[in-house]
Specification:
- The chain has about 625 residues and is mainly alpha-helical.
- Helices cover about 60% and strands about 5% of the residues.
- The longest helix is centred in the N-terminal third of the chain and has 66 residues, at about 110-175.
- It is elongated and about 180 Å long.
Length: about 625
């Protein structure tokens, strides 16, 4: 019994000695581990306190130096931390952790073995916490170092870019200060100033990229939680404000110069003020439409004084019985007054192309119309070598175009309207006019549908409408003419130019006045060596009307168109119109026809009317009161 007890005491003393040695060893580990944990936690807080970085390059440079010192301190502590963690690892390898035993409910004392396991577990936890804190701190130090480096680079780039922008803006503002007021500039120098302003704007174009760069850098810094210092923010705001003001100033300067050049330059309306004489004055409405003030009568009107006189002379033609001729005669006077009879289609189309009027849907304002008309009359002077009163011709043509296509004076005219008006009155063969007008509404493949043909005929019908002659040409409704043309074109959904030309040569009701105008123009220059049987005029000037019922009966255009006849001559008799001198073959043909008609009765002629002088059967008028 004593022997057993001695053995137990001996083992007990040995175990106690081992436990004391274990506790002494573990105690030497727990204290440094806890110190390391506390130190790492403190450094982690210090690292967090370094953020956010301030948005100033000098301050971030200081932060960079402080962080370098901080990282050096952490680096110096590393060997000690690694040695302690290695000691803890060695300790845990000597005292491995076991599965925890279920504590006995009856026993309240903890066995030495359990105490050893508890201490080992505590050391293990401390070592894990210290290791994680160390890894986290070192990783954060590296990341923060990169963040500081990147932020410093961005701030230095921002600072350099802002300094460069400030210098450029100061120089640009110096140039702006040298700008003379628009009112002090000579009219002839306006193009030079416009060009200088354009070049100045182009020179400053790279600044736009610089302004975008500094704003992008500030945005990137904000995303990184780096907000600019008050000074940098103030400078950036000033740069943006000055840049916007500079842009606005350049654009406003350019607009004012262009407006001044448009209003007072060679292509402006300013030079048109000479188109009227005292007591008249040319004025401009807010939408650039001209109107005319009579200071003597104290009245205003849309029409130019010369246009008023022209319209008064047109009233003399109202005694012409046939609307197609009446309209053509009136348009001939307008054409000559506007000098458009001297303008060729080639000349006009080149001006249209130069002013980019190819899209017929384009809407022109008054200034665009004036520019085109001015270029056209200048080219007329140059190519024909004649002197033209350009201000008067431009103003009169503008007046006529507005009367025809913009009677409400909105100040807007479609390009198709403008081209139609000019082409109809220019001095070119009628076939070429029809071909050109058809080309303005046809597709690239050369065909035209009903909608586009309707648009063309609608524009064309405005010409007789303005003269009060539209009723004789089917009225303002052009759909019957459109349907007639497409029935003529075999009823297809589109027609070609050849079909259109064949139609207008036979049944162009809404455009019949255009071929008649062409004949009137030619007839004006012709003298027929014969005597009028009514007024006895010899030679007959203009149209000659030969009776195909009676021999040697000729009527001049004045007598025929106004309905004057001599005894025995009736309008229902067959008559042939000539607007060029007759040939011998035509004389023989008419003689044979007259010989045949001698043997025909009055009833025959009443049943078979022959009006060769009218281009379309549908416009034979019995009532002459539609003007």
């Amino acid at each position: 019994m004593n022997l057993c007890w001695s053995e137990i005491k001996k083992k007990s003393h040995s175990l106690r000695a081992r436990l004391e040695a274990f506790m002494d060893h573990s105690g030497k580990l727990q204290l440094p581990l806890q110190e390391i944990i506390d130190w790492l936690s403190q450094k982690d807080e210090e690292l967090s306190a370094q953020l956010p970085l301030r948005g100033d390059a000098a301050l971030v440079q200081q932060e960079k130096e402080m962080h370098a010192t901080f990282m050096e301190e952490v680096k110096c502590r590393g060997p000690y931390i690694y040695s302690v963690l290695e000691s803890a690892q060695l300790f845990l390898s000597q005292h491995p952790l076991e599965e925890p035993e279920e504590p006995s409910l009856e026993s309240k004392d903890v066995s030495p073995r359990q105490r050893i396991q508890n201490v080992s577990r505590f050391v293990w936890k401390q070592a894990n916490v210290a290791s994680e804190l160390w890894e986290t701190l070192t990783a954060r130090c590296v990341d923060q170092h990169r963040h500081i480096e990147r932020t410093l680079e961005q701030l230095l780039e921002l600072k350099g870019a802002m300094e460069e922008l400030e210098t450029t803006l100061t120089q640009a503002e110096g140039v702006q200060d040298t700008w003379e007021p628009i009112g002090d500039l000579f009219i002839d120098s306006l193009p030079e100033h416009i060009q200088a302003t354009k070049l100045f704007k182009e020179e400053l174009a790279p600044m736009k990229d610089g302004v975008k760069l500094v704003n992008d850098l500030a945005h990137q810094l904000a995303l990184s939680d780096v907000h600019l210092s008050m000074e940098n923010a103030r400078v950036l705001e000033q740069i943006n404000t000055r840049w916007k003001q500079m842009q606005a100033a350049i654009n406003e300067r350019q607009k004012q110069l262009q407006d001044a050049h448009r209003d007072f330059g060679p292509g402006s309306q300013h030079f048109l003020s000479t188109s009227v004489q005292v007591p008249w004055e040319r004025a401009i409405s807010p939408n650039k439409v001209p109107y005319y003030i009579n200071h003597q009568a104290q009245t205003t009107c849309w029409d130019h004084p010369k246009m008023i006189e022209l319209y008064q002379t047109l009233a003399d033609l109202n005694n012409i019985k046939f609307s197609a001729y009446r309209t053509a005669m009136k348009l001939r006077r307008v054409q000559k007054a506007l000098r458009l009879d001297l303008v060729t289609l080639t000349m006009a189309s080149e001006v249209f192309t130069e002013h980019e009027l190819q899209p017929s849907e384009h809407v022109m304002d008054v200034v665009e119309v004036i520019h085109c008309l001015t270029a056209m009359y200048e080219r007329l002077e140059e190519e024909r070598g004649i002197l033209v009163n350009i201000p008067l011709c431009v103003d009169m043509s503008l007046n006529w175009l507005l009367n025809v296509f913009d009677s409400g004076r909105s100040g807007k005219v479609r390009a198709l309207s403008f081209k139609t008006g000019i082409v109809c009155l220019c001095g070119t063969e009628v076939k070429e006019k029809f071909q050109y007008l058809f080309g303005q509404v046809s597709s690239p493949s050369g065909v035209c549908d009903q909608r586009h043909l309707s648009a063309l005929l609608h524009e064309a019908i405005q010409v007789p409408r303005q003269l009060g002659e539209v009723a004789a040409f089917g009225g303002s409704n052009v759909e019957p003419s459109v349907h007639s043309c497409f029935r003529f074109g075999d009823g297809t959904s589109s027609i070609e130019v050849s079909q259109f030309l064949e139609w207008v040569s036979l049944e162009p009701q809404s455009m019949v006045w255009l071929p008649v105008l062409h004949r009137v123009t030619i007839a004006e220059q012709v003298k027929h060596q014969t005597k009028c049987s009514v007024c006895k005029q010899c030679p007959i000037k203009g149209f000659r009307y030969r009776s195909l019922k009676q021999f040697n009966v000729d009527i001049c255009q004045s007598c025929f168109l106004t309905g004057r006849t001599s005894k025995g001559n009736k309008l229902h008799y067959p008559i042939m119109e000539y607007y060029t001198p007759t040939t011998s073959s035509e004389n023989m043909r008419d003689f044979a026809t007259t010989l045949k008609n001698k043997f025909r009765s009055k009833q025959y002629f009443s049943k078979h009317p022959q009006r060769g002088y009218l281009p379309v059967q549908s416009v034979l008028e019995a009532d002459f009161s539609e003007t």
